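#random but structural
TW: two for the price of one
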Amino acid sequence: MAVKQATNIKAICNRDALVEAMSLVTGVVAGRTPTPSLQCVKISGQDGLLTLTATDGEVSLVLSIDQVDLEECGEVLVPADKFSQIARSCDDSTLTIVGDDDKLNVRSSDSRFKVFGFPISEAPQVRTFDDVEPDFSIDGSSFRGLMERTVFAAATDHSRYAINGVHIDLRDSTIRLVATNGHRLALSTGPCDSNCEKVDCIVPTKAMTLLKRLLNDGNGIVSVKINDGQIIFHIDNECGCTSTLTSNLVEGTFPPFEDVIPKDLDRKAVINKEALHRAVRRAHLMTNEESRGVRLIFDNETLQITSRAPETGEAEVEVAIESFTGDKLEIAFNPVYLMDALKVINANDVTIELKKSEKPGLIRSGNNFVYIIMPVSLQ
């Protein structure tokens, strides 16, 4: 079906589906830019679907929704934030949108809006997935789990460009996602269906965070293609809707992460994850900007966690150790780094492996998650 003039789009949209889709789209558009079209969403109606397209020049998103009654096909380009705010502000279960040259009329039962947009010819070009063979495919729920256990550990310091993202390392049918900020490293492993022997690239954190949101319901299959310095994630949902996220890759070489995983740890403690998480959270209450660490004292059947902040107070919390091998050890860690890892582990127990108080510690959950954390110095 050929797309008609941009002035002709007319659709009755499910308001909740539109709000959800626009919340994802607004995560893509540029914040500040001299190019107004990079702050816009292209709204297209065709083949019974409403398709929303946006880009900031580095990351782009094409998202379709089928909860729409498409009366006339067409396209229109309007500011994404304003359209999203209007959709959220209305209480009706449906909204009617009608294109009018470079403007979009939005109607609910008691409101009328006219949003001034731009010529559709100014819409930025974005890549589509088309019918290319993916480099690999993976279950959406599995991929989201891999991202949950790694994205949080990525660097946010822009001076360290090569680690401002998540490293995808694929060998045959095993995929590993790795993220680090230099003080901690998260590594998550899982299976995938691969059409190539090797993938080695760094995906910006923004793109991975958006992809994680796209996979919030865990449904669908993610097909991935890497080409010309870009990575394309294409999601086929069970309902027949699709979404395509494209991102420039991070330039540079990711650090040799396997070299920093300690191999000679001679102290091992198995602890209930929830009990440990609660204990660290309590000890964290008595830390501040000057005293950011909590001290962990491993001794046979008990883990003692202490913290102290000048002019604030002290805390001491005990946790039962289910099993412990090795000699007594005292070590201090950033409590936020500990809690970040514990929040993404699904198992009942975690294994903590240590060597010395000045050496990195390792938190392990099964065979699919490894977390290395550098100790901190306490006065």
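TW: number two ↓
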Amino acid sequence: MEIARRLGLSQSTVAHVLNQTPGMKFSEQTRGRIMSMADRLDYQAVRLRHSIKSPLRHIGIAVGEADERSRTYTNQIFNAASREALERRYYPVMHSLPTGVGKPDHSAAVARIVELYETRLSDGFILDKACFLSADTRQLAESGIPIVLVHGSPQRLDDGREVPAVTIDDFRGGRLGTEHLLELGHRRIAMICRPYWRLPSPFRVYAVGQLLLGYTAALHEAGLTVDPGLIADADPADKQTVYEAVNRLMALKQPPTAIFAGDDALAVMAIHALNRRGLGVPWDVSVMGYEDWAPAVQLSEPALTTVHVPLEENGRQAAAMLIQLLEKSPLAQMQLKLDPSLIVRESTQAVG
């Protein structure tokens, strides 16, 4: 019994105190220590679980604090993970943790994950890497807790072992979108994305950084010089920042003929901003997005060309990988990177 192990007491002593066995007397100090530890370990939940003849198997999905757009992104991953878990007779449990990009102290969230694992309220975790520092995930992996990372950079431990992860190849996605515009004859290609360079390391959003690197690589491969003036920050939660970014870009002496937005919500807002300036899409400016997010795609006029990001496959593969770990099955690969794909619709066309 975990309580007995932690306190250095016999299991019978702990059992008598917790079950209030008639005739058994213990000091108030011993009783207090046991009850305090039972509260810490959520003993009632543990006892209920162990009373079931066929114990339920639980997968924890660790969700950190995020803005509305980020939650929408990760929810697609986690919803798919939940469906896959249920199909395999594992029960997904969502754990909201006090984390968040830009917060240097995640000790409370890490402690909560350790507690949930030690009490077997969750047998393993799918962890949103974007909400944790590498040191946090390293601590969890080295403690023996089964985890699979999603939504962020893959990681290795100090001894070279890979931490299981299923991620998106956003570098390839950035290059794919830029190459599409280059093939249409565009040479002045702007990139509008969430704030990245202004965030201090290590809190830079990994996906945005990889998108920018892919964009840069495609331009270099085409023999073009990257113009920093064509890279703009904007926040999809504040459309005014998108309008300001578009207005600045279009006021350049040599304005872009195409805009690659770092997500579909930004792309739709960019189309609105261009329309307000009297510019038509794609006749005057081509616009493309990133993710293939259904709500934004449905709102886009014209139909939005974008890069499809396989978020549901990300979640499904993460759940499958974690279950393999829990069932001691060998993994074909410890870190799986999924490829985005180009979806051509009506918002891009050849330079005319």
